[in-house]
Amino acid sequence: MKTVIKTTNLSKVYSGTAVPVHALKNVNLEFKQGEFTAIVGPSGSGKTTFLNVIGGLDKPTGGHVVIDGVDIATMKESQLFDFRLRHIGFVFQAYNLIPVLTAVENVSFIMLLQNRPKAEMEQRAKEMLEQVGLADKLDVRPGKLSGGQQQRVAVARALASRPDFVLADEPTANLDTESAFNLLDIMARLNREENITLIFSTHDQRVIERARRVITLVDGAVASDEYFDRETSGEENGQTGQVMTATL
Question: Using an 8 Å Cβ cutoff, are 79 and 143 in contact?
Fold first, then answer.
């Protein structure tokens, strides 16, 4: 399978404190197209920093992040903005929907920035909202949607432009159990059907039990990298499959 992301000796140091914080330490990882990966570890282990760096939201202190053959660590901010726009989808814990826009307008927003034709945007946005079970909420603004519904709009927006991969930072953290399971069902199905690479940072065992790969970070370094054989029935019921491989 195609390698979507490759990090080499990736490091991130925050030096604005009395003692520098080494948030990432020589992280070497590859992600293949279609993977469903959970990045786990205790608070302060570097999960969110890792997502921010590979998503081009933060610059590494050292090392490389190669996406589609391009090292984004060397890009200027203007180049990064355009690269993120065209290659990466984001799902944030806080949803980050635009309050004055309807659901269909929020889902269309990234495609609007990409200068897609209007008819294509509308069709794809409606299609994605139908995929996440919100076909009856097209013209509803975020303030009239539940938390779970807002997060589903955010997922639809992230996937609508067909990015190379989607980064989700604790996407189920603010959701009740039913909403979380619904969201995970949707993302697991879209991962299979559209072959989109999903990378989550999470503490949520419900997410971990769906992921086919689980990477554990401890103090900014990779402590383990495990692959799981998740049967379809196991995914749907949140059951853990057998470990296929494990590397340190």
Answer: no
Instruction: Enter the pTM of the model.
Output: 0.88
Distance CA 98, CA 123 (A): 20
**CA angle, 92 as apex, 144 and 208 as ends, to 5°?**
115
Query: Among 87, 131, 72, 83, which residue's Cα sits nearest to residue 107?
Result: 131
pLDDT (tens place) for every residue of the chain, 248 residues total: 899 999 999 999 998 778 889 999 999 999 999 999 999 999 999 999 999 999 999 999 999 999 988 999 999 998 999 999 999 999 988 889 999 999 999 999 999 999 999 999 999 999 999 988 999 999 999 999 999 999 999 999 999 998 989 999 988 888 888 888 888 888 888 888 888 899 999 998 988 998 999 999 999 999 999 999 875 434 444 444 555 444 44
| β 165-169/36-40 pair status | unpaired
Dihedral, CA of residue 194, residue 200, residue 202 and residue 207, to nearest 10: 20
